[in-house]
Design goal:
Strand content: 25-35%
Order of helices and strands: EHEEEHEEHEHHEEHEEEEEHEEEHHEE
Distance between the termini: 55 Å
Keywords: Hydrolase, Magnesium
Helix content: 10-25%
CATH architecture of the largest domain: Alpha-Beta Complex
Low-confidence stretches: 1-9
Cofactor: Mg(2+)
CATH class of the largest domain: Alpha Beta
Protein name: NUDIX domain-containing protein
Radius of gyration: 24 Å
CATH superfamily of the largest domain: Nucleoside Triphosphate Pyrophosphohydrolase
Number of domains: 2
Number of helices: 9
Mean pLDDT: 90
Number of strands: 19
GO molecular function: hydrolase activity
Largest sheet: 7 strands, mixed
CATH topology of the largest domain: Nucleoside Triphosphate Pyrophosphohydrolase
Length: about 375
Amino acid sequence: MTTTSSPDEHPPGAALTDKAYGALRASAALWAGTSVLITNRRGQVLLQRVGYRPTRLLPGGAVDTGESPARGAARELQEELGVTTTVTHGLAVDWISPAGRATSPAVRFPGEILHVFDGGVWDEGRIAAIRPRPGEIDGVEFVEPADLPAVMSPGDARRVLSALRARINGAGPALLEDGLPITPTILDRVGVLRTARARHRCPFRSAPVPAGLGIRRVRVWAFTPDGRVLVLLDPDTGTAGLPGGTPDPQGHADPETTLIREVHRKATAELAGTRYLGYLSDLDEPRARAHYAAALTSLGPAPVDPATGRTHVRILATPEQAVELLERGPSATEELHAVHRARVLLGIPHSGRRPVTELNSPTTW
């Protein structure tokens, strides 16, 4: 491992020689590390199996003398996975304290500054091109976010989940201490991605629900005038969902009427210009989940969920951020196309990625 310390902005004082000043700074040196967070199209994280540790690791390692963390990350990808690429976007910078990593006392671990870079979302072609380095990397695997604490060390799992949330939030690199953000976002506070999600994805179809296929649930992409949509976060599990609900057992109300009623009851939201998008087909039973788009005109006080007695956290996110929070996987592409077609018809502009916003107070648009 190499050591590094930042140069001082001011020259050494007259009472301290250059040699003494250099020795003082060297005594406070830390390790410098780098890593790369890569996901597949299902949102699973690429981890490496190595023979020298029982837990999984992100691709990465120590920064060499005189090497920048970004160049070190690209070098490690080449050495460990046989992949040539550049990394330009940081997700997190973690201060790992001497007590924050389990090491042998003989190592005399001084602490580390570890950079986490965004390696992007890899398709099947890029994944197939991976060539793990013999003798160092036993293999690679893609792991569900909720399963990271089971296969990584506690600090490493915290760091990766924090970096994943920072990627979704889009506010720039998160500053961490032992894997936890020093300024948590709402995604960190609620703990999104920590709960196991469905292992199978329901395909989306831009077509009417077939006759004879019952509607199990109705949901809406509710747009604000700035092009973002309303997402509900479960405070107990961190699970994200679009507002909506379940039709009454008797099926007296049509799906659109059910949607308007349930959105008002569970999110105190009022809609306008409702448009049908398509449906998700359940794999375990012959039922459909009908999806709509609409303009969100007002939001009242956050209601208590009658089923749980808890209040959902309401946030605004771009449609792309919503898909990452909803964890729809590859099938989300077709649904996103339908969502944006409806957005255009509603006369709502496209929103670039920005930090998600929590809605605490009643609002009218």
